[in-house]
Design goal:
Layout (H helix, E strand, L loop, with lengths): L6 E2 L10 H7 L1 H4 L10 H20 L8 E4 L2 H15 L6 E5 L4 H10 L5 E5 L9 H7 L4 E5 L13 H10 L3 E5 L11 H4 L3 E5 L10 E5 L25 H37 L5 E3 L10 E6 L4 H10 L2 E2 L15 H5 L4 H5 L1 E5 L6 H21 L9
Parallel strand pairs: 1-11, 3-4, 3-5, 5-6, 6-7
Antiparallel strand pairs: 2-8, 7-8, 9-10, 10-12
Helix pairs in contact: 1-9, 3-9, 4-5, 9-13, 10-13
The structure holds 4'-deoxy-4'-aminopyridoxal-5'-phosphate (PMP).
4'-deoxy-4'-aminopyridoxal-5'-phosphate (PMP) binds next to α4.
Length: 393
Amino acid sequence: MAATKRIYMDHAAGRAVDPRVIESMLPYMRSLYANPSSVHSFGQEARQALEEARANVAELISAERKESIIFTSGATESNNAAIKGAAYRNKDRGTHIITSSIEHMSVLNPCKFLTTRGFKVTFLPVDQYGFVNLKSLEEELTDETILVSIMYANGEIGTMQPIKEISQIVHSKNAYLHVDATAANGQVPIDVKNEGIDLLTISSNDMYGPKGVGALYVKEGMRIEPIIYGGGQERGLRSGTEDIPGIVGFGKAAEIAKKEIQTESERLIKLRDKLIKGLLAPIPYSFLNGHPNKRLPNNVAVRYSFIEGEAMLLSLDMMGVAASSGSACTAKTLEPSHVLRAIGLKHEEAHGSLLFTLGKQNTEEEVDHVISMMPDIVKKLRAMSPLTPKDLK
Ligand code: PMP
């Protein structure tokens, strides 16, 4: 059956670039193409655009100064730069790092790598909602701990961590706090000063900017070792000629997000809660993943017993709806997501998960449409499932 209407609800994996962002980028591909490190006036125009974008990104996260923003190629690079950079630079102070078991692979894997270079890493467990246990964080911190890396929000289950409380605990033991805010930036206001963040990862596409651009906020006075060496751009912390069109787009996206974050997140929360209710209430053996309200405004993560997320995804896709069964980054493996396992779901429970992530283009009508198709999809798949109890067949 060919779908008549296409509905995109996979914004955690990729977003459309805002038309205002595209417009802002075009001059820097057409005519303002010079290198910002060049001394001539062409170069200086590019430099000015670069610094304006830096100021916009700094303002979005309430950074103390624009120089604290280092542009990178995206969240994965920022996370690597933060974790490896802070570890190498502070090795003489200690070799212990703490992170959580539900971080993105671009945090978990650099941490695992560091264990092969003389560092010790503690992976904190989380509760059924995905909250880091603050008591275990306190207990695990020692004089040897140099860095704690905890995400602002988890893209797969939506749970938002109490970053300010975490930062107070981390700083009471003189360690640094890195926060991966990739899933949260542009959706909820972030204030690095008020929340006590030393290193913050953000990315452009997650707020309707172009892909392949991100930033690392490095608090004034915080020292990290570069992971990329070269011509010394970005205060020597990230060499390589800056991607001016991409960065200009990122800056524009940050400027727009700052203005629109409040109204858009209020709108999304209404749609989110309607979709959650509509996907769960009419269907027995259905559950919410993550916390009911301490969750990202756009995140709808549900699970249905006795069926596979992949089968639901295919059915939805045939009906024109794009959703996800978890993180797009790990979608190639058949293993259930480490996040769903960490919140205590059994293999088969995790496999029945479905993730809808809303965005600017989604309307209430689309939400209603998705709600109306789900009971039939679940019923059909359960009818074929050997696991379904008799009363549901
Ligand atoms: N951190 C988090 C929390 C993410 O959700 C993602 C994926 N969007 C990343 C890091 C990696 O982002 P990218 O693949 O754009 O580098």
